[in-house]
From TrEMBL:
Protein's name in the database: Amidophosphoribosyltransferase
HAMAP family in UniProt: PurF
Cofactor dependency: [4Fe-4S] cluster; Mg(2+)
Species of provenance: Acidiplasma aeolicum
Organism lineage string: Archaea, Methanobacteriati, Thermoplasmatota, Thermoplasmata, Thermoplasmatales
Known function: Catalyzes the formation of phosphoribosylamine from phosphoribosylpyrophosphate (PRPP) and glutamine.
Length: 465
């Protein structure tokens, strides 16, 4: 994945963006199965899409845009392949950074699709350059691939990958193709999800189980944190597992993953529903109706409404086909951009006190304008409730949140934030409530506390000089 400064889009810039989606497949109709898997995981990356398959030779197609735009008519042969949807979190945008990355080595072809962020990529790149390796992109995925190829050349596949894992820092969930064998690899802390499933054609690995559902498959299990899994001739074999303390990303459950996915044994919808119920216990409000910010607040809003016995309503309708807006020069233009993206159902808004639920507030711009939109259409009191704790610190493990300045909660009280967004009241879920709803105590909460599971190398931080 690759890092750039976040875009300041009024209507979409509030949310942190995910890093990437990976898919791998071994079996019949590999191209079609990977294609459907990538389409199911389009939400994890819309910048570029790509695929590499193998049938004795390597075949690659990748380009900028959505899966449907890149693979309009092309097909790739072979019964094994890997696919990638990208959103850059480290390096620049551009076709040179689109995945998958493939190289030809003395062993044959090695390809990788990677979801996450290698925090020490700069240092590793410089070290590899000194040893004569040449890079064609600014992507940390290419660093990971060349490091692995170097170690594999010296120690063989299993030991080489293990040696590389001990040198890599940060997060990675990867689908790896080495000639006619497929591998699944997850970092020892398990920051990013990776699952294994099967259908009538063969075996799939993917960032989320929803991809497996899309090809009429069944989920077999998660790839364990620190595990290398080999898939060949229909056989799934666990090669090794490096045991470290786990630090699953809480944002996968709060926002990134599809609600119909199952991650580390937990259905995402059920987790979000419980987030809403616990939020209602911790931060109750008296109101006529509970309304979610679509689409991200729906599951939490339903849990909140059920817990307090307040009617739930879809009071905001999202225009799924509105164009992405640019940076607007004045308040009226920004208001019009929100109106294009979201429109209230007036009968559900006018004259009613509302609990407005969203999964998170990052910059606060969108929430501020939604509140002004609702009040302009006759809403009474608006009680904002957020299904996660305040975000106060950057993420260095694959989420596009890199500078403290962009966080509305940075060095502000809840009362300050309430006044800034124009709400009548504001309540956040607690960190303990978050852990209880997810059912995992070993979470990465660095963006909530500023304390990270591992040391962050200086070059991983923005504005490093």
């Amino acid at each position: 994945m690759d890092s750039h400064h976040p875009e300041s889009d009024t209507t979409t810039g509030q949310k942190p963006s995910e890093e990437c989606a990976v898919v791998g497949y071994y079996g019949n109709n590999a191209f079609i199965n990977i294609l459907f898997g990538l389409k199911a995981l389009q939400h994890r990356g819309q910048e570029s899409s790509g695929m590499a398959t193998y049938d004795g030779s390597i075949h690659i197609n990748k380009g900028m845009g959505l899966v449907s735009e890149v693979f309009k008519s092309s097909s790739l042969p072979g019964n094994i392949g890997i696919g990638h949807n990208r959103y850059s979190t480290s390096g620049s945008k551009g076709i040179e950074n689109a995945g998958p990355f493939v190289i030809s080595s003395s062993l044959g072809y090695i390809g990788i699709s990677h979801n996450g962020e290698i925090t020490n990529a700069h240092d590793l790149r410089e070290e590899l350059k000194k040893n004569g390796y040449i890079f064609t992109s600014s992507s940390d995925t290419e660093v990971m691939l060349i490091l692995m190829a170097s170690e594999i050349n010296k120690y063989g596949i299993y030991d080489g990958i293990k040696k590389a894992m001990f040198k890599l820092k940060g997060s990675y969930a990867a689908a790896i193709l080495i000639n006619n064998t497929l591998y699944a690899l997850r970092d020892p802390r398990g920051y990013r999800p990776l699952v294994i499933g099967k259908n009538s054609d063969g075996i799939m690995i993917a960032s989320e189980s929803a991809a497996i559902d899309t090809v009429s498959g069944e989920l077999i299990r998660d790839v364990k944190p620190g595990e290398l899994v080999e898939i060949n001739n229909g056989v799934i074999k666990s090669i090794f597992t490096i045991e470290w303390q786990h630090s699953h990303c809480m944002f996968e459950y709060v926002y990134f993953a599809r609600p119909d996915s199952i991650i580390d044994g937990r259905e995402v919808f059920n987790v979000r529903y419980n987030l809403g119920k616990i939020l209602a216990i911790e931060e109750p409000a008296v109101a006529d109706v509970v309304i979610p910010v679509p689409d991200s607040g729906r599951s939490q809003a339903l849990g909140y409404a059920v817990q307090l016995g307040i009617p739930y309503s879809e009071g905001l309708i999202k225009n799924r086909y509105s164009d992405r807006t640019f940076i607007m020069p004045d308040q009226q233009s920004r208001y019009n951009a929100i109106k294009l993206k979201l429109n209230p159902i007036k009968s559900e808004i006018s004259g009613k006190d509302i609990v407005l639920i969203d999964d998170s507030i990052v910059r606060g711009n969108t929430m501020k304008f939604i509140i002004s939109l609702l009040k302009k259409d006759g809403a009474g009191k608006i009680h904002v409730r957020i299904g996660s704790p305040p975000i106060i610190a950057p993420c260095y493990f694959g989420v596009d949140m890199k500078t403290k300045d962009e966080f509305i909660a940075n060095e502000k009280t809840v009362e300050n934030i309430k006044n800034e967004i124009g709400a009548d009241s504001l309540g956040y879920l607690s960190i303990n409530g978050l852990k209880k709803a997810i059912g995992i105590s070993n979470l990465c909460t660095g963006c909530l506390t500023g304390r990270y599971p591992e040391e962050i190398p200086p070059f991983a931080k923005p504005n490093y000089t």
